[in-house]
Amino acid sequence: MPMKIFVVDDQPIIRDGLAYMIGHQSDMVVVGTAGTAKDALQGVEETRPDLLLLDIRLPDGSGLDVARQIQPADCSPKILLLTTFDVDVYVLEALRAGAMGYVLKDLPTPDLLETIRAVYRGEAMYRTQSASWALSQMITSEATVADGAPLDGTSPLTDREKEVLQRMSFGERNREIATALLLSEGTVKTHVHSILQKLGVEDRTQAVVWAFRHGLVR
Asked: Which of 81, 3, 94, 91 minimizes the C-alpha distance to 40?
């Protein structure tokens, strides 16, 4: 079944272009579009998409506010923020709002489509220059990890899993990690699953937060 995507952007030409591009993918379908925060919230409630592709600056508010209001709801979509602004504070607020990804509008079309697929699979996709700073700030101020994750400098991970986690922290996808570490993509997926289980976290974003908090990545 194709993933259901709702597109939010205040500029009609960008919104329609994204909808057209996404609508021509065999594994995606656009269930709605909106140009304002109000219409976005209403549209998500009516269509129940799997993924919300969301601009930050909207005429009646912020896409970050939309993300904050949607995330606590049952059956909430995964959120991917698409913006022209590589602003560290925005990235930090996106993390706090529970967004799975933050990418810029100058991303090539094939890369954007693959990012959408990755976020749909539950992979964190924070691929901007501000991402490392935002993760560090989140960890310092209010990051939360599972109670079972050790906080004494030890690690439940094998050396290979640490290598995979480091590359996850750089925003690399499974295919890129596999190439860099000379592994099969299936093996990388197995390592990622093991990492999430050992750390007691739900997704790659929380795993990356753990990596920064424990000094595995700086």
From this structure: 81
User: Counting beta carbons within 10 angstroms of the beta carbon of residue 134, is it exposed (0 to 12), middle (13 to 18) or buried (19 or more)?
Assistant: buried
Could you tell me if 114 and 173 are in contact, meaning their C-beta atoms sit under 8 angstroms apart? yes
Q: Which residues pair with 8 in a beta bridge?
A: 34, 54
Task: Give the 3-state secondary structure of residue 191.
Answer: helix
How confident is the model over 103-137, as pLDDT tens digits? 999 889 999 999 999 999 888 788 776 666 656 55
Backbone angles phi, psi at 46, to 5 degrees: -80, -35
pTM over 0.70: no
Q: Determine the Cα–Cα distance for residues 216 and 218; give it in Å rounded to an integer.
A: 7
Query: In angstroms, rounded to a whole number, what is the distance separating the alpha carbons of residues 158 and 74?
Result: 35
Residue type, 211: A
Residues 106, 111, 183, 202, CA torsion sign: positive
